[in-house]
Amino acid sequence: MEGRIAIRSDAVILKNNQVLLENGSLIGNWIREGEDAEEVCRKKAKSQSLDITIVKPLHPLIQWGMDDKGEKAVVVSLNYLAELKGEENGG
User: Fold this and answer.
1) Which residues contact 3 (CB under 8 A, 6 or more apart)?
2) Helix (H) or strand (E) segment spanning residue 76
3) Disulfide engineering: 10 pairs with which of 26, 39, 42, 78, CB 3.0-4.6 Å?
4) What's the confidence (pLDDT) of residue 3?
5) Whole-angstrom Cα distance, residue 55 to residue 68?
6) Phi, psi at residue 67, to the nearest 5°?
7) What number is the average pLDDT over the span 19-40?
8) How far apart are CA 56 and CA 81, in angstroms?
9) pLDDT tens digits, one per residue of 36-69
10) Which among 71, 91, 68, 73 has a CA at the least distance from the CA of 13?
11) Which domains, from first to last, does the chain contain?
């Protein structure tokens, strides 16, 4: 197996002091060549009817997992703290 690397962009969105999840995972998506990581987060949140502001980057998470094609890969998750527009400090 060749060393595959897959990169995700995920938002840690707080509401009422809880992290919003989509099917048990942070709200985010795979980053394709040429895409901006923060914009990927905003677009995915928007597809869930959430309008967010990126507050700051968090530490990336690097682990073995499955990529978007279901193949084993090193998955790098670029994580961002985000808040819902119009709300502050976790709602």
Assistant:
1) 74
2) strand 72-84
3) 26
4) 80
5) 26
6) -85, -175
7) 94
8) 5
9) 999 999 999 999 999 999 999 999 999 999 998 9
10) 91
11) 4-84 (3.90.79.10)
The amino acid that residue 65 corresponds to is: G
Instruction: State how far the Cα of 43 lies from the Cα of 88, in Å rounded to an integer.
Output: 20
Of the candidates 23, 10, 31, 19, the one whose C-alpha atom is nearest the C-alpha of residue 90 is 19
Report pLDDT for 55.
95
Which residue matches tokens 């967010």? 52
Question: Looking at the predicted structure, is the pLDDT value of residue 22 above 80?
Answer: yes
Residue 91 in tokens:
């709602």
**Residue 81 confidence (pLDDT) above 90:** yes
- DSSP codes joined into one string, 10-47: EEEEEETTEE-EETTEEEEEEPPTT--HHHHHHHHHHH
pLDDT of residue 17: 87
